[in-house]
Amino acid sequence: MTVTDDRRDVRDRRSGRDRFSQLPFAVVLLVVAVAALRIFQYHWREGAALIGAALLLAAVLRAALPTAKAGLLAIRGKLVDVVTFTSLAAAVLYVALTIIGGPLGS
Question: Which residues make Cβ contacts (< 8 Å) with residue 53, sequence separation at least 6?
Fold first, then answer.
């Protein structure tokens, strides 16, 4: 068996449903990209709140989806992932919503 045959054999065994297994992670990254855009436009508080929302979205998706469909959102066990994402979201949202003034002044 040549290397090409081996790769073709692996590709043939893949199922179509694996193609969308990273979709939840991509959705979370899309929200983070919008947050980065808002931060670059000097709306850092809105951007930080969007990052917190992305973390909450990651927690909801990790809780709702089975591990096989969670893609890169599945890092540890489901409970650990959900608690970690929720805790980080709460911390980011707390900072974003309570800091007043600051060097960017918005």
Answer: 31, 89, 93
